[in-house]
Amino acid sequence: RRVLTQPMAWESLKRILSSGEIRIESLERLYGLVSTVSLQPEPIPVSVKVVLLGDRMLYYLLSHYDPDFLDLFKVEADFEDDLDRNEECYELYARMIATMARGLKMRPLERSAVARLIEHASRLAADQRKLTAHDRVLRDILSEADHWAGQAGADTVEASHLQQAIDEREYRASRVRERSREQISRGVVMIATTGEEVAQVNGLSVLRLGASMFGQPTRITATARPGKGQVVDIEREAKLGGPIHSKAVMILSRFLASRYAGDGELSLSASLAFEQSYGGVEGDSAS
User: Fold this and answer.
1) Do residues 13 and 46 lie in contact, with contact meaning Cβ atoms separated by under 8 Å?
2) Is residue 262 predicted with pLDDT exceeding 80?
3) Name one GO biological process term (predicted).
4) Within the chain, what is the greatest distance between any pair of CA atoms?
5) Which of 152, 162, 207, 246 is deepest in the core (most CB within 10 A)?
6) 271 alpha-carbon distance from chain centroid
7) What is the per-residue DSSP string for 15-29?
8) Domains located in the chain, CATH noted
């Protein structure tokens, strides 16, 4: 990403790899802005192997739009974002955590602290059978846990210090989550948690803001009356529903027709609505 954001860096890198030499040239000469010819340093022969690290999307975009990219970078390695959570991986993951701790020059970690960090890594992966392979967040948590251990006067980092670091990180990023809970408790957002209602359920969407994730409850209501077999998606009609959500509602509509009116016309007209939802609704799980 940094190579692409620096002016002329990407084109210069491709030129060096193609020619096998480094030429020192001014930008004015490269762009043809000067007509005078001056002395130029001799090119420097170079023989290097370049490894580029970046996002998958950047790789796909360069492969599609830059014809020289695949000619210069022929070996592709797509790394997993998650690791399997098993007994063999536990030992390797603990070694990785110990390596990060030594690199940060922090206090020794207790076994309970390592176990708590591995558990949190599974939460970061959003899968109880996986562990995240992104170590940046883990390094930040370890560094903050070492700080809290120092504040407590401890010689080692314990599970309580690690938990405090996790809690403090969540608290600092909880402004939107707390505001959402406040609106529900004050009755601004109508969410019923007791009793029974016909044609009304509480849905839960997961919002991700930076490194923070939390659940946002929403009331979903449905209406039905005699009609011509049409299921109206109010979010789509109001242009608040995404294409995946709209497709899921259409599939649901066809399922109802095939299940209850396979030989004739479904004499039903229904509608679905996400109440007090002022943003877009997307994803098949929203249906």
Assistant:
1) no
2) no
3) proteolysis
4) 87
5) 162
6) 32
7) HHHHHTEE----HHH
8) 2-72 (no CATH), 82-172 (1.10.8.60), 193-286 (3.30.230.10)
Q: How far apart (Å, rounded) are the C-alpha atoms in residues 166 and 145?
A: 8
What is the spatial distance between Cα 57 and Cα 80, in angstroms, rounded to a whole number?
14
Task: Identify each DSSP E strand in the chain by its residue range.
Answer: 21-22, 44-45, 82-84, 130-132, 200-209, 212-225, 230-233, 269-274
pLDDT at 241: 81
CA–CA separation, 47 and 173 (whole Å): 47
Q: Give percent of the chain with pLDDT exceeding 90.
A: 28
Look at strands 269-274 and 230-233 and give their pairing: parallel
The pairing of beta strand 269-274 with beta strand 212-225: antiparallel
**Residue 145 has what pLDDT?**
95
Cα–Cα distance measured from residue 156 to residue 149, given in angstroms and rounded to the nearest whole number: 7
DSSP state for residue 197 in the 8-state scheme:
-
Q: What is the pLDDT of residues 140-156, one digit of tens each?
A: 999 999 999 999 999 99
Q: Cα–Cα distance between 46 and 23 in angstroms, integer?
A: 10
